[in-house]
């Protein structure tokens, strides 16, 4: 069954300003515009990525599963060592002891706070320390007297000079020692054999 055409009053109404603009619109006022089609070519990296992607997809789609070899899966069960078992038991027993701990078996204790007072020696040391600090902080520099420092140069006595000369001669003699004056000597190694009497005494003992 065909639907009846809507009445004029039921049609959507157009605003007066928009209606006048549509009625007065002239297509001759439009400007000619050229459409430019831009084709952006992919870069070398995009082409290489596309080729790699296509090769990967082709390899997956054309994969020959008949070339696969059958393998047997071996399940290995590693048993714990006696040390691991003992440690596990100890940890389990410790956890169970903590979980099942009966707090009602605890005995009530009272905490005693002790604040021992310092003895006479400690107080005397503290007073002395405070007096020293107070004396340093409140020291009056105006009470100081000017003093001239005297530098004394103590000359060595005769004995020290003689010892110094002897030491210098000894060092000079060692540094200037002429090894060409040494005479050649030959070392003789002696290994005396025991006599008959010594051997007889060794046997008899």
Query: How many beta strands in the DSSP annotation?
Result: 0
Instruction: Give the strand content.
Output: under 5%
Shape: elongated
Average of per-residue pLDDT values: 81
Descriptive key words:
mainly alpha, 205 residues
Q: Gist?
A:
With 205 residues, the chain is an all-alpha fold.
Describe the structure.
The protein is 43% helix and 0% strand. The chain has six helices and no strands. The model has no long low-confidence stretch (mean pLDDT 81). With 205 residues, it is mostly helical.
List the helices and strands and how they pair.
Layout: H1 16-23, H2 44-61, H3 82-99, H4 120-137, H5 158-175, H6 196-204
């Amino acid at each position: 069954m065909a639907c009846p055409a809507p009445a004029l009053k039921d049609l959507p109404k157009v605003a007066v300003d928009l209606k006048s603009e549509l009625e007065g619109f002239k297509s001759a006022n439009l400007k000619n515009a050229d459409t430019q089609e831009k084709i952006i070519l992919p870069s070398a990296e995009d082409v290489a990525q596309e080729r790699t992607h296509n090769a990967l997809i082709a390899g997956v789609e054309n994969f020959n599963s008949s070339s696969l070899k059958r393998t047997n899966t071996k399940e290995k069960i590693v048993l714990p060592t006696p040390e691991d078992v003992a440690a596990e038991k100890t940890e389990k027993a410790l956890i169970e002891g903590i979980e099942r701990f009966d707090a009602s078996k605890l005995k009530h204790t009272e905490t005693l706070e002790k604040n021992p007072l310092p003895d006479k020696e400690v107080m005397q040391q503290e007073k002395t320390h405070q007096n020293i600090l107070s004396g340093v902080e409140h020291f009056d520099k105006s009470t100081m007297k000017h003093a001239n420092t005297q530098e004394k140069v103590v000359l060595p006595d005769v004995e020290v000079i003689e010892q110094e000369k002897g030491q210098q001669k000894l060092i000079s003699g060692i540094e200037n020692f002429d090894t060409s004056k040494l005479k050649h000597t030959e070392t003789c190694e002696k290994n005396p054999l025991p006599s008959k009497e010594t051997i007889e005494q060794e046997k008899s003992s």
